[in-house]
Amino acid sequence: STVVLIFQAPISESPLKKDGSSEFRFCVGAGDRVRVGEALGR
Amino acid sequence: GTNSQGNSFVVPGATVATILMLGALHARRLYDDKKVQEAREQGIEIVFKPDLKASFLQLLPLRSISRFWGSLTSTELPVWMRPYVYRAWARAFHSNLEEAARPLDEYASLRDFFVHTLKEGSRPIDPDPRCLVSPVDGTILRYGELKGAGAMIEQVKGFSYSVSSLLGESSFLPMISEGHMQEDSVKQEKVPGEKIKKSWWRVSLASPKVWEPMSAHPMKGLFYCVIYLRPGDYHRVHSAVDWNVLVRRHFAGRLFPVNERATRTIRNLYVQNERVVLEGIWKEGFMAIAAIGATNIGSIELCIEPDLRTNLPGKKLMHSEPPEERLYEPKGVGLMLKKGDEVAAFNMG
After folding, report:
1. Is B141's Cβ below 8 Å from some Cβ in A?
2. ipTM score of the complex?
3. Test mutation, A24, A36, A42, chain B, max B CBs within 10 A
4. Partners of B118 in the beta sheet?
5. Looking at the partner chain, which of A1, A12, A29 has a beta carbon nearest the beta carbon of B346?
6. What DSSP letter does each residue of B226-283 carry, written as one string?
7. For the segment B127-145, what is each residue's pLDDT rounded down to a tens digit?
8. Radius of gyration of chain B (CA)
9. What is the Cα–Cα distance from B38 to B88, expressed in whole angstroms?
10. End-to-end CA distance of chain A, in Å?
C-alpha cells in the first residue's frame, strides 16, 4: 500500500532571501526508509 | 483403451507445460527486475513504460481476488501453528516480530497478525514542534513542492497525476498560483482546538486564481510526500502533525498492485486504486493524507470512523462516480488529532 501526504507549509518570502528562516525543508531523500514518528521535514 | 491412455498423457503434459510457462514468466520477471536494479544503481532514471502484464491486470477481477485473499487470511489458525506461520511471514517479508504488542499465539489469523499494534514506545514521536513526522513505516518514493498550475505529482519519470484527481474535487485545497500560496489576511493561529476563521475558507473557497498582492504573512507552498509500505511493514497510519480533520472521502476504485513495477507500468495507478482521503487544516494551512489500497491490502480502516468499510462487493467502478464524502462535526472544526495519534490501518481483503 501507499500513503500520499499533501500539506501547506511556509516557503522563503522571496527567491533572493533564501535564509531558510521560516522555509519548510524536507530532511529525507527518495529511497530512504522511514518509521512512524520520525521527522520528514521541518 | 487408447482414449483413456490419451487422457492420461494429456493431463500431465498440460500441467508440465503450464508450470514451464509460469517458470519462464517468473524468470523473465526476475531478469527485468534485475535490469531495473542495475539501471537504478547506474543512476539511470526509471521511465514509465506500460507492458503486456499491466494490460493483462486490467482484465483481472482484482477486487474479488483481494476479498478472497482477505477471507483466506481470516481463517482462524490452531494456536500451536500460529507462531510458525507468523515467523514464516516475518522471514519472507522482513517483519520485526520483536515489536508485536502481543505474544504470537494470541493473533487468531494472519489477517489479525498483519494489522498488529506495536509495543509501547516502539515509535517515539519527534518532539520538535516545527517538524512534520512520517505517518507510516515505509520507503520514501517521491517528495517535493508542488509548483505551477495543475499541481502534478510524478508517478515515475514520464508520467504524472494531478493532486485534485488524487484528493477529489477538494473544496479546501487552496488554489495554486505560480507554485506559491499566499497566506490570506487571516493567519491560521494554532488551529487545533480553535474555531477556524470563516474568512480563510471563504477566501480559499471563492478565491480566484489570481491572488492578492503579497500579504503581510509568509508565503505558503504546497508540498507532497509519497511513502510505499512493503507487505512486511507495520501497517497502521498515524497523524503527521497536530491537525483538525474536516472531511473524509472514500474512492471505491481498482486494486492494482502498487509495487515498483506497477508504478512503472500502470497509468494513473494511485488515482485508479481504492483509497481513503482525509483532509483538514494544521497550523500552517492545508493538510491531507491519502491512504491507497492494493490487491493484497484492499481494506482501509479508520480509527476515527470505525464503521467505514472499503473494498465492498458490487461497487460499480465508474471513474465518473464521485467519492463518498463525509464532513466531520462540528462543522468547520472537525476532529482534532495530535501528532502521532493513530488514524487508520491497512488490512488484507
Report:
1. yes
2. 0.89
3. A36
4. B100
5. A1
6. EEEPPTTS--EEE-SSSEEEEEEEEE--B----SHHHHHHSTTHHHHB-EEEEEEEET
7. 999 999 999 999 999 999 9
8. 23
9. 29
10. 25
